[in-house]
Specification:
α2 packs antiparallel against α3, α2 runs parallel beside α4 and α3 packs antiparallel against α4. The relative contact order is 0.15. Helix content is about 75%, strand content about 0%. The protein is built from 8 helices and no strands. It is rod-shaped, with a radius of gyration of 24 Å. By secondary structure, it is mostly helical. The chain has a single domain, classed as LemA-like domain (de novo design (two linked rop proteins), Up-down Bundle), CATH 1.20.1440.
Length: about 200
C-alpha cells in the first residue's frame, strides 16, 4: 500500500511540476517571437529604402563605385539570409544575422559620409526625403531592438529561475540570444578631446 501512495505522490508531484510556469513560457515565447518580428519588419523597411537611395547617389556620385558596391553587397547578403523565428533558438545564426546587419549599417554610414562631398546631392529633394526616411527607420530599428532585448531578458530570467527552470528543462526551453554591442572595447575607451586651435 505504501508503494501505491509513493507512486501517486510522485505522479501528483510531476503533474504539479509540469504546470509550474508552463503557461508563462508559452506567453513569453510568443512575446519573443512578436518582438523579433518587429525587429525584422524594421530591418526590411531599411533594406527596401536602400535601392532608391543608391540610385539617387549614383546619379550624383557615379565614381564612388566602391561605396555603392559595398552597400549593394551588404544589402544582398542581408536579403539572402533565411531568417525565421528559429534564429531565436540558435545563437550562431543570430550572431550571423547581427553581423550582416552591422555590415549594412556600416556601408550605409559610409554612403552618407560620401554624400557630404556632393553639395548638389545634399540639395536634392529626393535624397533628403530618403535620408529622412532612413533616419526614421534607424530610430525604429533601435526601438524594436530595445523592446526585443527587454522581452528576451524576461524570458531568459524565467528559463533560469527556480522552479521554472525545471519546467524549462522538461519542455526544452533554453535561453535565447540577444543583441550585443559589436565592438565593446572601442566604445568603452574614453574619447579623446582636443581643444587645441588647429589652423
Amino acid at each position: 500500500m505504501q508503494k501505491i501512495y509513493l507512486k501517486l505522490l510522485t505522479v501528483l508531484l510531476l503533474l504539479n511540476l509540469s504546470g509550474c510556469g508552463y503557461n508563462n513560457f508559452q506567453s513569453l515565447d510568443e512575446e519573443a517571437k512578436a518582438s523579433w518580428s518587429e525587429v525584422l519588419n524594421q530591418y526590411q523597411r531599411r533594406a527596401d529604402l536602400i535601392p532608391n537611395l543608391v540610385n539617387v547617389v549614383k546619379g550624383y556620385a557615379a565614381h564612388e563605385k566602391d561605396v555603392l558596391t559595398q552597400v549593394a553587397n551588404a544589402r544582398s547578403k542581408v536579403g539572402s539570409m533565411q531568417v525565421t523565428a528559429d534564429v531565436l533558438n540558435d545563437p550562431e545564426a543570430f550572431a550571423k544575422f547581427q553581423a550582416a546587419q552591422g555590415q549594412l549599417s556600416f556601408a550605409l554610414s559610409r554612403l552618407m559620409a560620401v554624400s557630404e562631398n556632393y553639395p548638389n546631392l545634399k540639395a536634392d529633394q529626393g535624397f533628403r526625403d530618403l535620408q529622412a526616411q532612413l533616419e526614421g527607420t534607424e530610430n525604429r530599428i533601435t526601438v524594436a531592438r530595445n523592446r526585443y532585448i527587454e522581452t528576451i531578458k524576461v524570458y531568459n530570467v524565467a528559463v533560469r529561475s527556480f522552479p521554472q527552470n525545471l519546467t524549462a528543462m522538461m519542455f526544452g526551453y533554453k535561453t535565447k540570444p540577444s543583441f550585443t554591442v559589436e565592438n565593446e572595447k572601442a566604445i568603452s575607451a574614453p574619447p579623446t578631446v582636443d581643444f587645441a586651435d588647429k589652423k
